[in-house]
# Entry
Amino acid sequence: MKKIIHFSKGFLAAAVISCAIIVSGIVGMAVRGINFGLDFKPGLIEEVRIAPPAIELSYSGSANIRAEATASSFNLIISGAGAENRTEEFAYYKYPTVKEMADALNSVEGISASVVGKSDDSTYSLFVDSASSAQVTGEKYRLYVPYDVDISVEEVREALSSFDGIAIKELGASSANAYQIRLGDTGEENGSKALVDGVTNALGAKFGAEKIAVVKTDFIGSQFSTSLVRSAFLLVAATLLLIWAYAAVRFHWDFALGSVVAIVHDALVVLAFVTWTQMEFSTTTLAAILTIVGYSINATVVILDRVRSDMFTTEAKTFNDVLDSALTATLSRSLITTITTLFAVVSLYVFTSGSIKDFALALMVGLLSGCYSSIFISSGLVSFIRRNWKPGKDSIHVFKHEAKDTHVIQMPQA
# Structure
């Protein structure tokens, strides 16, 4: 007969240890606070591309001309007093090179277009600096194509190292030289403009002012960031409620309560870890917590399903005997699942950087906590609730048939 491991003897000690970790996390939140990332606090989100200008435009007429770059064409929108309101469209497939595009633009009255980059560069990836005015005037208006030299995200971080709490992420292929830059609000008047100007000037000093194109700029206000924090916590609470409802229907209310307490325990353990390490709490961290919730409930449901099965198939004097039998039977499954998942998560942690590295680290803590809570926290709570359980209608009696060497199972009465 397989040896039964008496996990029930560790329920009380596990509860004490878990309470100590959770309380320390709550104290940490009160003393140090959570290091909310830019996803959850006001600040600047800017998309920047670094590339040399390909074409420089200027306009000497009296009309108003606005430039617009779309996915399929470059457009000049002409309007104003004494001008015929129209849009001149220059499709990339008609003018596939920078030189051909410049020659076509020169056909518009008053427009002067000169090639300042490589004349044979493709126009299909043409873009403009959205931070500058879309109005084409006597001043130089630049059109860009992606740079043919890769600029690493580490070089961009080095150029912006003087900014506190900045987050930089590479967008698309490295050859596109496109980066998303996030900065927290300084709280000063006209702070958003100062942040934009500061980032542009710092990048211009490193790579050349004429090579910096701001593609998109968004500013998150304090009201929106507060609403986002509230929505995140409501999302987690709604997830827990739905899991409790499922487990209550699938098993019994006390089993459901045990499973929900286990996943709340895992979420609080990860929050305690995030608080004391001051890891940035971003939407990536929130995704890690929700992933852990899904993983933990899966492991817990497997164990509780075995507990329910053993209640009808195991001769036991106490409910702890049932738990010990079920936990012993599912131990190898719990360990193998956790260890194999950890292999993938550790690889993510070792071979990635930035927010993905934080995601992997939070997952590692959550996976270990999830394995532990499924065995000790969930089962310990169910054991406490059913401490007066006795074999009876929730169990079976096994009789040895006198005439044959077989076992007859008597199912519980309805």
Observations:
- The longest strand covers residues 212-220.
